[in-house]
Amino acid sequence: MARWCYRHRLVVLVLWAGALFGLGVTASSAGTNYAEVFSLPDTDSKRAYDLMRKAFPERAGDTDTVVWKTGEGTVRDAAVRSRMEDALAEIGRMEGVGAVAGPYDGRGAAQISEDERIAYAQVTFAEQADAVPKALVQDVVDTARAAAGDGLQVELGGQAIARVQEPPTGTAELVGILAAAVVLFVAFGSVFAMLLPIVVAVFGVAGGMFGTQLISHATDVPELASLLATLIGLGVGIDYALFIVTRHRRGILSGKDPEEAAVAALNTSGRAVLFAGGTVCIALAGMLVTNLRFLDGVVIGTSLTVVLSVLAAITLLPALLGVLGQRVLSRRQRRRLAAAPDAKGEPVSGLAARWSATVQRRPRAVAAVAVVLMAALAVPLLSLRLGTVDQGNDDASTTTRKAYDLLAEGFGPGFNGPLQVVVDGEAPSALIRAVEDTEGVAQVTAAPPANGVSVIQVVPTTSPQDVETDRLIDTLREDVIPAAGVDAHVGGVTAVSKDFASVTGDRLPLFVGTIIGLGFLLLLLAFRSLVVPLTAAVMNLLAAAASFGVLVMVFQWGVGLDVLGLGKEGPIASFLPIIMLSLLFGLSMDYQVFLVSRMHEEWVHTRDNARAVRVGLAETSRVINSAALIMVCVFLAFVLSGDYGAAMAGVGLAAAVALDAFVLRTALVPAVMHLLGRANWWLPAGLEKRLPHLAVEPKEEDDATPMPAPEEKAVDGAASVVHGFVRTPEGEPVRDAAVTLLTPGGRQLDRVASLADGAYVVAVPSPGTYLLAVSASPHGARAAHVTVGEGPLVHDVELTPGGVDVVN
């Protein structure tokens, strides 16, 4: 498929461009039909919500608040009243505004605070917040705030109002892409190579967004799905293309022509991308076991984007590689390749190779430091509290936060999160009195029955985020309502959030077990090992614990909130654990697949665990760290989205990816694999026979030369030999170096140890090209292709400390 896409690149490009254009036009014509269906089956708040819909079916529009405070006098003063009444009357005449309920008519006396310095009005739009035109909302804001001045403060709050104070759509995405472009240019040194991952990611994300928009007309998809799809799509799309482009460039530098390099890159890293995309989709699908139906749309949108990102990486990318040819290399690399066309690539050296050698020499120390660091970051997780995230967490400079604070000041902290005790039938006076007498209740208002349903509005004495408010909900449900002997339920946003936190906690073990189990099975099939997937599962749990610890420190304890400009500390959003764990487990598996697939490739060829881990880490750590840095930039950019929940998810995922890539995959995983040795690749023989083969690496071609039996390895019986000396750069002989001769397919033909003077001789069964690998601790390792003719071949080897030559 890669070869076909490479050779028919114009066809592939036209098909992708046409498909994206068609999807875009269709989605734009159809519009969006996002549905915020927040259903928690078998919960008290859901039963209250159902009764509320029965009582007030006509209340479809979003209700927002205009709140004002006078510095002198009262809000009943003629000057204040005339200014606010004029402003509210003008707002009420706007097309798209359904009703305005102010405090100055007979029914609005309760909308003025006891000290008469603060008052509010409710503006009900004809549509829900997401459907209200931003221009209309901005007109409402401008009209209301125009009445301010001369000691009168006017602020606005509500969901529709929050939309106009968000940065322009696409700001977070653009900042993330620009940051990724900088990282890619530093990594590649080529503008064309930098653009490739970005173009592939944009195609995948755009296709996913248009597709999700169309699917929203067929099933319930929340707007959150679009945001998360963009978040995850940009990250994985750029990363997947980065891994393939890196392998392609290495192939060209090793002497392959661009087409063969592209085919080899897709046949190795492309397969790893397929596996990685599969693990992400499996982790996302794990949300389905929670039986929270509003998450179904999130799974559909994000999974579709991931699938299209993978499809773009394995079809669109080879076509783009065909268009660019050798221009994926930097000018310096192209000049060097032109001057030495027979060069076999560059040795993997520098920081990556030195770090890989360090991990091999001191695996216990590296593992201990990594475990202590992750454990320390996980400690704050013990104080995790899930709860309501509302406009009280907004930045102090926003009008929504100011309105929230004014309402809390004038009417009590619980006014921003009232509870509703909903009764099926008429509410008995005994129940109303019992609610009024309950500790923690500030105000009770009983509305007359509507459509056979009564609603008692309860304002707590504490804020929606206070733990005492949670206790009040429990008291009403467990003591007050049962004692009254009526069929009543406690609802409201705060109650829904509390129920969601409870449901999340109850179903989290099943959710985590499902995604870990499915990921374990996929890695078991991929790497034919029990230890590798088990290690990955433990590392994923470590990454989850540490990243949630960081989340608690920042958003619950307030460490660094001012620096990030994210407002006020509070509990962690109830919806976040399920969504964040899905994305985290998927992304963690990505890095595990890319790292271990290279190690497994080397293990299959050499059966040397130390070399496999060392070479795999040396070759992939740089690209994994670059990919992680890109994801961190993309996720942190969502701090600029203006959405507190999105910012929380962005910070949490950025911390998770950084810890996973920089601590776990490049330190703890290889250190543990060095300590476990050959046990890493153990699989019971009975299980080996029963498991289907699902290899990340392509199947090796059969070699014409059979592997000689041990008794046939004598040099005298060989068709020829390769001999020479193993020395250090200073010319010192290296004794007991392991010298291995392998076929191009990776089968071992001969293996000897160098003598005291560094001399070695390996037997060659017939003329041809072979792979000669030499390693000696602590001198490093080197591998090279050797071509043997009819006679003996002299080949001296120089070992550089920390150097690793990788030959595909």
TrEMBL record:
Compartments, record wording: Cell membrane
Membrane topology type: Multi-pass membrane protein
Chain ranges of the Membrane transport protein MMPL domain: 39-365, 462-682
Record bears the keyword Transmembrane helix: yes
Assigned keywords, A-Z: Cell membrane, Membrane, Transmembrane, Transmembrane helix
Transmembrane regions listed in the UniProt entry: 174-193, 224-246, 272-292, 298-325, 365-384, 508-527, 539-559, 571-589, 623-640, 646-668
Pfam families, per database record: CarboxypepD_reg, MMPL
Keyword flag Protein transport: no
Family the entry assigns: Belongs to the resistance-nodulation-cell division (RND) (TC 2.A.6) family. MmpL subfamily.
Protein name, as recorded: MMPL family transporter
